[in-house]
Design a protein that fits this description.
This is S-layer protein outer domain-containing protein. InterPro entries: S_layer_C, S_layer_MJ. Residues 409-479 form the S-layer protein outer domain. It comes from Thermococcus eurythermalis. The chain is α/β, with parallel strands linked by helices. The protein contains 22 helices and 16 strands. The strands form 3 sheets. The chain has a 9-stranded mixed β-sheet. The chain has a 5-stranded mixed β-sheet with strand order 1-2-3-5-4, with helices on both faces. Helix 19 links the parallel strand 6 (368-373) and strand 7. The radius of gyration is 25 Å and the shape is globular. The termini are far apart. 43% of the residues are buried. Mean pLDDT is 92; it is low at 1-24.
Length: 553
């Protein structure tokens, strides 16, 4: 397939022959910022004036788009994208529509060179009238800077596929948008595998490693589907793994049919993600990052850690030319021993980190959450400040639930002194630390991040004895590093912590605590929340995230 005007980096690696190949041919890995995807992205930026949850480009690039294409901001193509991806649609609906459109665009020649475009014709006209290719070529260095950093980690893809699955594709193409979040996915055409998605342009390593692992994930989906097509019979009686995650996270699993619609879909996702993480480790992605991602993904793909161990066992015991296809009966047997229908709930708790995302699922499912602000601060202006913080967080939560779920639960704001015994059993969000909020004070010793007072005042300290399997990660200079649990959390008046635990008055529900060392730290963490971990500590010069579990043996 000829690509016109595309900036391509191609790496050629020695590997085994693709299935059906009759002569020696080296698999290729190709990474590019695809001109059609970037054309769509430019139009999307214009359609929503550079401000939208799906726009990921650096701000200076967005400004370049808005300036260069200003005369075309009401072009028919812009109106078309604004209409079909209307911002009033649910996030999931827009995400799905953009994925479908991206899949079509990535496999076409540069649009102005195509015929019979149908509904895509306005995009081709926009490209011609605006001289889009001039803009694209002017930013080649931006695209090159990103793709050159990503590509070396992908050189193992053909060899890893040969080793684990017994074949490779003739070509692996990574087709990216530089500017807009297109849901990553894979399309097969002949002997070519296309990973279609988006770049994460950043000078930092963490977004790059996130991207690399995601590319491994998408390229691994097709061979995993082949693997399950041949071997699902060994696993089909393990559907209780899916039943449990549906029971624990009913909202998330009902919205995401592609991953939770059936046990074969769910197992496909578990195998694909765990293999992607394993392949990333084998390709030089740092262990700390992979562990961080694995803990994040374990919230819904909870057997990941056991599958990672399974791949190690496979490699240690592997005979010459043996693949996962041969190993499938052993893997299925082991999976049946990790958990049974009788103990799957306990297994889930032991494998699944507590996160704000899990709490948000429960809040949406129950249809109610109470935000509790403290009234204990001897400085009454502090109480009023925390009440305003609670009201601000209520508005933020309403926007969050409407964006991702189309509607919001009942969100009630109450003072700590007004909570009833029944209120304590609900899903709660506590605003303020132990000085300000009496519920936080009562829970302080049970929190994974506890507030400690000494002669120098209040500070934060990790409290691993309150939970199980505590892992802490420092985010610094765009990198993620695992840190000792006894390392010091610096004092800074801007620091606040958001942490999630099971509600001790009703363990089916959750409590989220947003509290800083000062009222300003509390407000600061509200504006920099993170539901993808068990806790986040955030200050002007410090960011830490961590994971833990809560269960009894």
């Amino acid at each position: 397939m000829k690509k016109v005007g595309a900036f391509i980096i191609t790496l050629i690696f020695l590997s085994s022959l693709p299935l059906g190949t009759t002569q020696a041919q080296e698999p290729q890995v190709v990474v590019e910022v695809n001109p059609n995807l970037e054309l769509f992205s430019v139009i999307y930026i214009l359609a929503f004036n550079g401000s939208d949850p799906f726009i990921v480009a650096p701000q200076d690039y967005i400004q370049d788009v808005l300036t260069y294409f200003a005369p075309y901001k009401e072009h028919e193509a812009v109106k078309y994208i604004r209409e079909v991806l209307d911002e009033s649609l649910q996030y999931y609906s827009r995400d799905s529509a953009m994925m479908d459109l991206g899949g079509r665009l990535a496999l076409l020649d540069y649009l102005p060179n195509e015929t019979n475009l149908g509904d895509l014709k306005p995009l081709a006209e926009f490209a011609n009238e605006s001289n889009f290719m001039k803009f694209y070529k002017a930013h080649r260095e931006d695209y090159l800077e990103y793709t050159l950093r990503v590509t070396p980690y992908l050189e193992n893809v053909p060899e890893l596929h040969r080793k684990f699955f017994g074949f490779t594709y003739q070509e692996y193409r990574v087709e990216l948008s530089y500017s807009v979040r297109i849901h990553p996915h894979t399309v097969l055409e002949g002997k070519t595998a296309y990973c279609i998605g988006y770049a994460l342009p950043s000078k930092y390593k963490e977004p790059m490693f996130q991207q690399v692992t995601t590319i491994f994930h998408e390229f691994t989906h097709p061979p995993v589907e082949d693997f399950l097509g041949e071997n699902f019979k060994f696993f089909e009686n393990k559907s209780y793994y899916l039943d449990e995650v549906r029971n624990q996270m009913p909202v998330t699993t009902s919205y995401d049919y592609d991953h939770f619609g059936s046990f074969s879909m769910y197992l496909d996702e578990i195998l694909t993600e765990s293999l992607a993480e394993y392949f990333a480790l084998k390709s030089g992605v740092p262990e700390d990052f992979v562990e961080f991602r694995s803990l994040q993904m374990s919230t819904v793909l909870y057997p990941i850690q056991d599958f990672l161990g399974e791949y190690e066992h496979f490699e240690e015991t592997r005979k010459e030319n043996e693949t996962l296809f041969d190993y499938a009966p052993i893997m299925a047997e082991h999976m049946g021993k990790w958990a049974t229908p009788e103990n799957i709930s306990e297994y889930f708790k032991m494998r699944t980190p507590i996160t704000g995302g899990w709490a948000a699922d429960r809040i949406k499912y129950m249809g109610k959450v109470i935000i509790v602000y403290g009234t204990q601060n001897p400085d009454k202006s502090g109480t009023e400040y925390d009440r305003e913080t609670a009201e601000e967080y209520k508005r933020d939560l309403e926007k969050f639930f409407i964006l991702y779920h189309g509607s919001d639960p009942e969100i009630i704001v109450k003072a700590d002194v007004n909570l009833t015994e029944n209120d304590l059993k609900e899903n709660l969000i506590l605003i303020g630390g132990p000085v300000a909020n009496k519920i936080t004070r009562e829970l302080n010793d049970k929190l994974p991040i506890t507030f400690v007072r000494d002669e120098n005042g209040w500070s934060l300290k990790r409290n691993p004895g309150a939970v199980k399997d505590f892992h802490a990660f420092l985010v610094a200079n765009g990198d993620i590093m695992k840190i000792p649990l006894d390392s010091t959390i610096p004092y800074d008046g801007s620091i606040g912590a958001l942490q999630t635990i099971r509600n001790p008055w009703n363990e089916k529900n959750f409590i989220i605590v947003l509290a800083g060392l000062t009222r300003y730290g509390t407000r600061n963490i509200l504006r920099n929340p993170g539901f993808g971990a068990g806790y986040i500590i955030f200050g002007n010069n410090y960011t830490e995230l961590g994971f833990y579990k809560q269960y009894t043996r």
